[in-house]
Amino acid sequence: MRPAATCLLPCLLALAGPALADAPLFLIEQSGLPFDLGPGAPRNQPSRQANSPNAAPNSLANPANSSTVYANSPRNPANEKRVIFLGDGSVVGYYAPSSAGTLNLFDRAGKRVAYRPRDSKSLFSNDGRWCGTVAAAQGGGFAFGVLRSCATLF
């Protein structure tokens, strides 16, 4: 994959996936993002308490964020409709919302790779690093623009 920051909005709108709620994953460069999608925007800052990996809604210790809960499990058929895929069509994982409003991203084996806190447009790694941005995709679902360092987590 090549960085797609120069075509962020067109890429988000043009990427079509295998199913309506499936989500494309593509590389971005933080410097090419509009302010409201980057980590400088107040709601997207890693230092914001609500974005912390230690905040209860985001925590790995919270069962709502674990793949051991059936709703988040790779065995749950509902997650087959929330596939995360690359531009070449290969599947790298899936996403599942929690009851607390956190959007969890899992690899194919069910390991949580990243999360989007409620009221944020940003993705964070499990250690709280800013990873990228989330946008609603045309036709439903999401599109995930991530830094290269986070894409390797999948």
Automatic annotation (TrEMBL):
This protein's UniProt keywords: Signal
Presence of keyword Signal: yes
Residue ranges with Low complexity bias: 46-67
Lineage: Bacteria, Pseudomonadati, Pseudomonadota, Alphaproteobacteria, Rhodobacterales
Annotated signal peptide: 1-21
Region (Disordered): 37-75
UniProt protein name: Uncharacterized protein
